[in-house]
Prior knowledge:
Chain A is α+β, with helices and mostly antiparallel strands. The first copy, chain A, is built from four helices and six strands, in the order ααβααβββββ. Chain A has one domain: Winged helix-like DNA-binding domain superfamily/Winged helix DNA-binding domain (Arc Repressor Mutant, subunit A), CATH 1.10.10.10.
Amino acid sequence: MIAKSLDLLKKNNLSKTESRKGILDLFLHTNGALAHADIEKKTAAAFDRVTVYRTLQTFVDYGIIHQIPTTDNTILYALCKDDCEAGHHHDEHVHFVCNKCENTICLDDVIVPKVKLPKGFQPSQVAMVVRGVCVVCKN
Amino acid sequence: MIAKSLDLLKKNNLSKTESRKGILDLFLHTNGALAHADIEKKTAAAFDRVTVYRTLQTFVDYGIIHQIPTTDNTILYALCKDDCEAGHHHDEHVHFVCNKCENTICLDDVIVPKVKLPKGFQPSQVAMVVRGVCVVCKN
DNA sequence: AAATAATTTGCAACCATATTGCAAAATGGT
DNA sequence: ACCATTTTGCAATATGGTTGCAAATTATTT
């Protein structure tokens, strides 16, 4: 469990820089999804904004994290499960956004059900976001 | 079919202004979803940016249009079906984003399937976005 | 139809978020 | 330790969105 971030970087042939390691560690120690702003806060602005943007983009490109669609014009990112590869995400699980604590949680065990699309539509990726009250806030 | 936008405005007790009518007409004549930038372009900047933002917000509040979550930090809007009301959307249909033409289409007839969440999670709203190739671009 | 009240618009200014070019710094391979 | 390559950070710029307020438009009253 020590230095799992380094393993991940090595596995993807990414150079081990402070920012990549730091941001990846943050994801590994966070349960839910993170927005760019969260990352800036939680890393105490140790890295330049631009570096954070580029690092996130790199991680998405390499299939280390994935994006979660939102309706408030921010982008959320969360760790991919182990079987994601560069250029091809398999993050077919449901995301849950809590209306109280506003955290976004990956429900890794809840897979997105298949839907039947109208004739001619060819799906390649599905995202499902459920809003509601999470298990922590339900009381 | 003439002046359906006026009907819609009247039904919601909204004053009939040029911008509301114009923007609503645009939605009525567009098949897919629209982003703020699309609206500015297609109305030839006839209305102020601020007016467009406020008009969209008003339409969302009154249940005339709904927002579609995206992963590119924009907000998409699309017409609601008839049974939406102020403050309460029933737009539980699937949205399709085409990777080729980049249009977003409401699949009004494909309703979002129910999923079983882990114990303690209480859902209130579900969004589902499918990416792929649409019926127009499939060839 | 004119006058008034209420709402909406447009402008200016502002803030937040995101991207690009480029020089300096850090990393990896030899 | 050196050098080629990649990554970082800064500055500048672009894009997206909000707020306050006066002017204009719409609705209401008479």
